């Protein structure tokens, strides 16, 4: 509806390839955009379409930095989490989701897409690149986790979300030059923050315990 003003958070915005088409398409949307890379955030801010009244970009490590320092608590309608969580260590994924939950409105949704179990990229990894179950490191040092539907559903549920859609997307990528046809497996999901949800304190408790240990 024309009168509807949505607030979106793109967690892991990169250089804004998703942010700016949305801003152009919907004149009523406001986008918070964050990324682990300060350089990526600078690219977003230098884009000609970037205007503070339509977009707010900032650097953030979702596993450590409070989103509420830049985004009002309970103010976001939709969070996009696209090929981001796979780069986070599995032990810290829940912290990232709890952090996101703090800025999401009750009834708000998380739109998720990432690498699925047995994707071609996973099958290409050598055993020496394996860091843990379904978790690998690339040659450039970046990491990649490959999700099963069951693991992802449990992860979000433990962070206080409810599953709406959670399914594998199967694609084929053809490399005509090399004569290759490879199977791609992605996981595409939608999770909702329950309307009666209370903001959790998992991230705060985690940080407080670390600070307490340093003081000791």
Structural summary, described in words:
The radius of gyration is 18 Å and the shape is globular. A hairpin with a 5-residue loop joins strand 7 and strand 8 (143-145). The protein starts with 6 loop residues before the first strand and ends with a helix. The protein is of the alpha/beta class and 216 residues long. It has a seven-stranded mixed β-sheet with strand order 3-2-1-4-5-10-9. Strands 6-7-8 form a three-stranded antiparallel β-sheet, with no helix packed on it. The protein contains six helices and ten strands; from the N terminus they run E-H-E-H-E-E-H-E-H-E-E-E-H-E-E-H. Helices cover 26% and strands 33% of the residues. It has helices at residues 19-25, 38-46, 93-103, 120-124, 149-158, 202-215, and strands at 7-11, 30-35, 55-59, 76-82, 104-115, 130-132, 135-137, 143-145, 162-175, 180-192.
């Amino acid at each position: 509806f024309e009168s509807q003003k949505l607030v979106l958070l793109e967690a892991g915005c990169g250089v804004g390839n998703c942010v700016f088409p949305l801003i152009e398409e919907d004149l009523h949307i406001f986008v918070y955009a964050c990324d682990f890379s300060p350089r990526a955030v600078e690219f977003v801010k230098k884009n000609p379409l970037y205007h503070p009244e339509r977009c707010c970009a900032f650097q953030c490590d979702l596993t450590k930095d409070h989103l509420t320092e830049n985004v009002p608590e309970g103010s976001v309608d939709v969070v996009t989490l696209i090929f981001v969580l796979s780069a986070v260590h599995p032990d810290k994924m829940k912290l990232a989701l709890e952090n996101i939950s703090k800025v999401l409105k009750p009834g708000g949704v998380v739109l998720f897409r990432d690498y699925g179990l047995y994707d071609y990229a996973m099958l290409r990894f050598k055993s020496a690149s394996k860091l843990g179950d379904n978790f690998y490191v690339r040659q450039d040092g970046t990491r990649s986790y490959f999700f099963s539907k069951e693991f992802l559903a449990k992860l979000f549920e433990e962070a206080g979300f409810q599953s709406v859609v959670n399914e594998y997307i199967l694609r084929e990528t053809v490399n005509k030059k090399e004569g290759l046809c490879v199977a791609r497996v992605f996981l595409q999901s939608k999770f909702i923050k329950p309307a009666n949800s209370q903001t959790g304190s998992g991230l705060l408790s985690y940080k407080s315990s670390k600070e307490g240990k340093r003081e000791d």
